[in-house]
Amino acid sequence: MKASETKFQPIIEGTKQYVVPLFQRPYSWDKKEWDVLWEDLVWLCENDEPTSHFIGSIVTMPTVSVPEGVSKFLLIDGQQRLTTIFILLTLLRDVAKNNGEDNLAQEIEQTMLVNPFKKGGDYFKLLPTQIDRDIFKTLVQGAEVGADNRVLQCYGFFERKLKQSSVGITALNKVVTTRLSVVSIVLDYDDNPHLVFESLNAKGRPLTQSDLIRNYFFMRIHVDEQETTHAKYWEPMQVALGENLTECIRHYLMRNGSIVKQGDVYFTLKDRVGQSDALKALKDIATFAGYYSKFLVPEKEPDSRLRNALMRLQRLEVTTAYPFLLNCYHDYAQSQISADDLLKILQTVENYIIRRFVCNIPTSQLNKIFPLLYQQAQLKNLSSLADGARSVLQARGYPKDTEFRTRLIDSKLYGAGERLIKTKLILESLESAHQHKEQPAFDNLTIEHVMPQTLTDWWQNHLGEDWQADYELYLNTLGNLTLTAYNAELSNDPFPKKKQHLAKSHLELNKHFLNVAIWNREAIEARSKVLADLALTIWPYFGEEQAAPASVDSVTGRTPKAVTILGQRFSVESWRDVQAYTLNAIAELEPDLFAQLASEYPRFISSDPSKFRRNRELSNGFFIEVNISAKDVYRFCNQAIESIGLSSEDWVVETD
């Protein structure tokens, strides 16, 4: 067996072929793995330093080649990542060809995808398992593929990502071929490939990067000191952090401004420690691991104010800020900054994250912003580290008051997963802002929709003729949400009955309903504005206010001139045009999410044109309702854009 670390290109170049054995499963990567790979590739394209990125190991075994001249290898392990890379290269070739970049297209095809002077099965550099083989070969040959399977889904995923990205295909091709690093393990001819595969995939826990790091340290520490060192430094970290230890070490390595991908922790640490004192390096990691454990378990922090701030950040899941916060906490532990200073820093991070969440600004840039923040804040040379951090962050995609308030009013806040957690934190903060001496216990409270998630006949009649549009556009907005312990009792009850239950509440949030007779879109908007104004006092802007962007209240009576979607500008003459261009873009970029939109907004999208008073056909055969107000178009498009992960920066409407 021979093992070596190498780049991706040398593995593929030359007259070679990799054959996936029959005992391997079909291609099975999906969106989760594709997303990780895409983000890594984009990061490598945008990173000026020529760093490599480790993507795992590839285990192969040479076989007898017939005819001679084609070096054939059984692909024992690593077929998922290798197949994905081949699919991506096929896409890059096709895009290059469509763009008229024939030289690049031929280079990719003849050096990376095929053996151009071979025939039959030997023409292809990769032969997946039989179930995927024909579709993969047809894709590489550039022919029309009829059937749909995971290989084509992968191709479509990267095709959509490429359209949404500013990354060029030349840069992406260079990264794929020259900056992806693998450990290539080549077995001997007489090894049993089936037994090797079983051994590699046997039940049992594989070594984590923290295991490799532990072994690396203790191989460099004298045997007489190993037991004491393990008990004093390593074991406490392992017990306190458990499976989070690798991520802790990654954030520790990033605290000076470096970007370390999750798969590169071990190799980065090896390079950092190098020939230096291993014991000293381990002690330093253990010190920062103590701070990190408080991020994960805030109850360990003795200062009640800091403990509460850390608990709030934990609920916001701001792990990307940990490299920055590790430095700040170290300053606090060394008495270089006070508890008040650290509290201001924690509140600044919360403010920044909350505003970006409400305004739907993508989180993908946060892992570039926070590792550099500590050094940049110090360079500001202001009166405090918190002031320096605020000065830096206000120029890093920090929403102004006008945008924050607008999005609080019209955005779809409530949702599954992290949206539910963050929205509940916002509602709790709005309640706590009244500063009663006896604060309510929030643990037993849940989010309640005043207009319920399932509309009864009573609610439909109460809302009026256009009840369905009001339901779809306003259900999950801030004005329709509150906190209560009576969630089960309230259910889908009529509003007068809900008022009776809410009148029993001691929460300030629920006193609003006592003087409200009708709960419709106007009432929801009115309450949204009251709560949005209160939110501005909880998370105040830490910079100079600038001109207001377009808002849902400002579009009535205005004529749109253009809509820009992901940098592509379309001239329009009406809000109907804005709606059509936006929905066509979503259908092209995210067809699966478009289908989900159609199920969530049947008042606005349908495959049946007869459902609408006045319809317009989209490029994918669906229809949209165009007999709606400019205000509803704007609100609906905003919510639709947010649902596919785009932000206000990606969708901009110009008006007269």
Structure description:
The chain is an alpha+beta fold and 656 residues long. It has four domains: 2-200, no CATH class; 209-398, no CATH class; 404-538, no CATH class; 560-655, Replication modulator SeqA, C-terminal DNA-binding domain, CATH 1.20.1380. Helix content is 53%, strand content 10%. The strands form four sheets. A six-stranded mixed sheet has the order 1-6-3-4-2-5, sandwiched between helices. It has a three-stranded antiparallel sheet with strand order 10-9-14, with helices on one face. Strand 3 (53-63) and strand 4 form a beta hairpin. The relative contact order is 0.06. The mean pLDDT is 88.
SSE layout:
Blueprint: E1 2-7, H1 8-12, E2 16-19, H2 31-46, E3 53-63, E4 71-77, H3 79-98, H4 102-113, E5 126-127, H5 130-140, H6 150-164, H7 169-178, E6 180-186, H8 193-200, H9 209-219, H10 223-241, H11 245-254, H12 265-273, H13 278-296, H14 304-316, H15 322-333, H16 339-358, H17 366-379, H18 385-393, H19 401-410, H20 418-432, E7 446-449, H21 457-463, H22 467-474, E8 481-484, H23 487-490, H24 495-503, H25 508-511, H26 521-538, E9 560-565, E10 568-571, H27 575-589, H28 591-600, E11 605-606, E12 615-617, E13 623-625, H29 630-643, E14 651-655
Parallel strand pairs: 2-4, 2-5, 3-6
Antiparallel strand pairs: 1-6, 3-4, 7-8, 9-10, 9-14, 11-13, 12-13
Helix pairs in contact: 2-7, 3-4, 3-6, 3-7, 9-12, 10-13, 11-13, 11-15, 13-15, 14-16, 15-16, 15-17, 16-18, 17-18, 19-26, 27-28, 27-29
